[in-house]
TrEMBL record:
Residues 24-119 form the DUF7677 domain. It comes from the Eukaryota. This is DUF7677 domain-containing protein. It comes from Komagataella phaffii (strain ATCC 76273 / CBS 7435 / CECT 11047 / NRRL Y-11430 / Wegner 21-1) (Yeast). Pfam families: DUF7677.
Length: 119
């Protein structure tokens, strides 16, 4: 069984801090997800210029969920936890949104099963 460390938070409650056998996301992965999220949620992702997708957040959340699944599934990191393919992961995810909003757009190459898996 993994050991947990119970820590007092600044708000007075307790939280579990990862024990020695647990891993946290690297700052590179965390930064990649945060950056992708910011530009997607703000409606200003440069790969989606001229695509009206921001309403999907309220109207079609499953489309956003799928885009994030693709982004995370495609994201790769090296042995030090540094993201090595941010642009490629963004491209695959934003191509999904583009194809969702514009049925005439064809994703190339087509998605492989592992890219679109919802875990």
């Amino acid at each position: 069984m993994r050991e947990k460390y119970h820590c007092l938070s600044s708000k007075g409650g307790f939280y579990d801090e990862p024990g020695p056998a647990e891993m946290k996301l690297s700052s590179s992965v965390s930064g990649a997800v945060r950056t992708f999220t910011y530009f997607m949620a703000s409606g200003s992702h440069y790969m989606l210029k001229d695509v009206e997708y921001i309403s999907l957040y309220g109207d079609e959340p499953s489309a956003i969920e799928q885009a994030y699944a693709i982004f995370i599934n495609v994201l790769e990191m090296d042995e030090n936890g540094n993201v090595t393919n941010m642009s490629h992961a963004e491209k695959r995810a934003t191509d999904y949104i583009r194809s969702y909003c514009d049925p005439s757009f064809t994703v190339q190459p087509p998605y492989e099963d592992w890219e679109v898996a919802l875990y």
